[in-house]
Fold these 2 entries.
Entry 1:
Amino acid sequence: MTDGSLKINKTPHQVRLWVHPEGLVTGSLFLRHEQTGLPPTESAYEVINQADPFVVLKREQTDDVRFYNRNSIIRVEYAAESFHIEDKATTLHCRLMMMDGSILEGAISEILPADQSRLYDYLNKNNVRFIRLHLNEKEICLVNKSYIIQVSPLAND
């Protein structure tokens, strides 16, 4: 007997994962939503930063479901639904050099306490494994801090 009372409402959200050593994987993460037809109540950023060691991804090419170890995910990229920076957000422009040799440039826009609003402070936040980098107005990249070699602040444009 299944009455659906144990079902968790989730919506697929298309992403591109760079996984070590597999490489680029395209598919969808599942974001929680309260009611069908409404926007998700959680973001890809929240899903990828959960404490559980594995995350569920529905593969695009093969349509199968896989569980990826968060420690092996280098970065996650996806289209931003909208580009709106909160008035109270601190914007930190930076360049990241990754272990695979790639260089990512963008802006971190987060609401940060005044006494912890430096790039150094944000990078050292202990409660998140992935940082959110706005590559441009249309793309967001969640970067696993474990795969970053160095970060350089950039002048605001």
Entry 2:
Amino acid sequence: MSDERPIGVFDSGVGGLTVFREVMRRVPNEKLIYFGDTARLPYGTKSRDTVLGFARQIVRFLKTHDVKAIVVACNTASAYALDVIEQEEDIPFIGVVKPGAKVAAAATKNGRIGVIATTGTIKSGLYTDYIHSIDGSIKVFGKDCPLFVPLVEEGWFHDSVTKEVASRYLNELKGEFIDTLILGCTHYPLLRRTIAEEMGEDVTLVNPAYETALGLKAMLAEHGLEAAPKEQRPHHEFYVSDAAERFLTFAQAVLACELDSTAVVDIERY
């Protein structure tokens, strides 16, 4: 038996496309529906209650498309909302925090891990909690990097301004002698080269997107939700809450493929 219903993926904006890209690669037979909350980003500076409210609206929207599972491709929403909405809904969810924490704990050799993320994710302490649930002896050093999100949204991946901002943010972590750094926001992998140059070759960068995609594949198999093999790529759908043309251009660059269209949704209706 196969299940041809789509999978929902959502993020505060374009950062979740890094997760979407890995999901496309790891479960190529699955149709995906992406929602980017471009009208209300960034999530990282907002309160827990606000982010939870946004997540509930997006889940309600995605369920109008009869999704069989949802990927919360946003670290802040994973930190603030995932545990709650999992209890409220009757379909399986997967976030990006637990997979990233698991990989980092396995990767570190000196037991010193850095986490860069939005202010909300850092304040939640969720990465630290998950890492300590795996190994309580590991020291975790968090640093919020709120300017990384708008820099990515502007497409300034290798700009001199971005390099200066990265230097200021990451200098603090370099002083902690970490050997592993979690890119704890889905926007940050798009700045991977700049971050790697700043941290040096002795620091392993962890991108939770890859492990999230693998976790989704296992979750679909566990629940008997896998789609049947297909000869052609499924038709994915993209929705945003604002700025559809700009999102479409950005998405084509990140995903390295032509997208048919992006539709604007009045998410407040949900």
